[in-house]
Amino acid sequence: MGPAVWTVLGAGSILPRAGLGCSGHALRATGGSGVTLFDCGPGTLRALAAAGIGLGEVRRIVISHFHPDHCLDLAAVAFARRNPCFAPGPLELVGPRGLVEWLEGLASALGRWACFEGVAVREAAPGDVLAAGADPTRLSCAATGHTPEALAWRADLGEGGSVVYSGDSGECDALAELAAGADLFVCECSFPEDQAVEAHLTPRGAGRLARRAGCRRLLLTHFYPTLEPAVAVREAGAVFDGAVCAARDGSRHFLCAMPWS
Ligand SMILES: [Zn+2]
Ligand SMILES: [Zn+2]
User: Fold this and answer.
1) How much distance in Å is there from the Cα of 87 to the middle of ligand 2?
2) Low-confidence ranges of the chain (pLDDT < 50)
3) Whole-structure pTM value
């Protein structure tokens, strides 16, 4: 049984940039329990195919917040599941409070083609812990303050390790607590230090959170056009002693005691 794998599907922002698409990530746990997506921004479905992951393997989609760069391909997923060439399997949608209403709005705007059927929808509040049947993955979340609903997510895979995904966030205590001791901390760092904006992180902010949390490895993501990933790695590395890496579309990162990928 191989290690769990985190595949980056989109490491950029809503502003077009080659190789850095909108937010989307795929976690394949060990034990054949399928793939969990963390966020589903525009282009996630195409990136999924490029990464060699079938849509039918996706059993759960976890949303951080309702900004379009993080969730707009949910419409594409709903449409794809209705295509006669696709045999939809079980799927669970998980997200912040308001997810049900957001999905209703999608269906209202786009018609029945964007309506999910036979799909479980779960809304989570900060502090909730979610487990799914025989799936060993345990999900927990914390509010990041980026938007009123925004959540960061943690997946504990038992012996398979642990990974925390910030979504979008300011430098907040709740995220540091959620990320405590994580093997892999996938953290946004939208802007350079001299262009910091409220409710987003810079590379040093992400590094400080990783240091406070005692994470083993930091994977930087969500690069806006003014931030070069190599610069971000250097800046975060100035405040965090662990391994630091920049995400790019298609990059894969192994959990547990595997070498840094
Ligand atoms: Zn956002
Ligand atoms: Zn964003």
Assistant:
1) 31
2) 257-261
3) 0.96
Residue of 175, 168, 219, 207 whose CA lies nearest to 27: 219
For the chain, the domains span 5-254
What's the topology of domain 5-254? Metallo-beta-lactamase; Chain A (3.60.15)
Task: Report the separation in Å between the CA atom of 133 and the middle of ligand 2, taken as the mean of its atom positions.
Answer: 31
pLDDT of residue 134: 62
Ligand 1 center to 64 CA (angstroms)? 9
Among all bound ligands, the one having the nearest atom to the CA of 67 is 1
Q: Which ligand is nearest to the CA of 191?
A: 2
Kindly list the protein residues that place their beta carbon closer than 5 angstroms to ligand 1, a single-atom ion.
67, 168
